[in-house]
Specification:
By secondary structure, the protein is mainly alpha-helical. It has 3 domains: 21-94, no CATH class; 103-137, no CATH class; 158-266, no CATH class. The chain is 54% helix and 6% strand. It has helices at 2-7, 25-44, 47-78, 83-94, 117-137, 164-172, 187-192, 194-211, 246-265; strands at residues 107-109, 112-114, 221-225, 240-244. Strands 1-2 form a two-stranded antiparallel sheet. Strands 3-4 form a two-stranded antiparallel ribbon. The longest helix has 32 residues, at 47-78. The radius of gyration is 26 Å and the shape is extended. The relative contact order is 0.09. Residues 96-101 have low confidence and may be disordered.
Length: 267
Amino acid sequence: MSVIDKHAPLKKKRIGKRKSPWITSHVVQKIRERDYLKRQFDITRDDEIWLQYKKARNETNNTIRQAKHNYFITNIEAARKDPRKTWRLVNDLNSRKVSDVTSVKKVNLDGNEITNAAEISDAFNSYFTSIGEKLANKIPSSNVNPVSYIQSTHSVFSFKEIGLSTVNRLLKTINANKATGPDKITGRLLKIAADILSPSLTRIFNRSLSMGIYPPDWKMAKVLPIFKNGEKCDLSNYPPISIISAVAKVFGTTVYDQFYSYLTSNN
């Protein structure tokens, strides 16, 4: 067995569970050229081959990225009248692996060590919901009315109808690498399907403004504790970040732009 282990050792190979339908023969060719140059460099350690490998690697990454884009654009457009196919494509585009790097294994609460995931979540919820009140109590009280700082104006603010081109532009400028909100709709999906989604979202945005109703689902946020420094068991060393829906961010941007335009012209 020692001879077998030496000359024919066991090797672990990662096998992808998901299909990659966007991989074409051209993509495969690029991958093979990249891998061939990498093997040649490992053998020769030639700087010229290394430069060729880096160029091939960048070309391969760009080819894969473009192939994915073309695949989803073509198939989403073709499946517009078939909801089942459309949602299958959406699910393929939204699927992401959840990293365990930022997971919290244990925390200390009132001197007790907590390792149960549900109890850790409750501990963070209690801490985050109470920290605001604790900080507010440390602010000295004042008898000054905040309204006294506001200057009166004769101008009146009102929302304007949001244009289709505005929504389309904002969708196409979404950062596709940003985290996904509670609705699990990725920025990458919104960016790729911007031309298809813009008309519907524009109507929803304008309907919300005209009725004065903000969709409750867009108020939801996925709150994650991010370790900063110090003791990992200390709750105070985990500042929270709130991840909201990408659609809500786009809507918020349109509202912000109108408010900012009004305030800068009436300051």
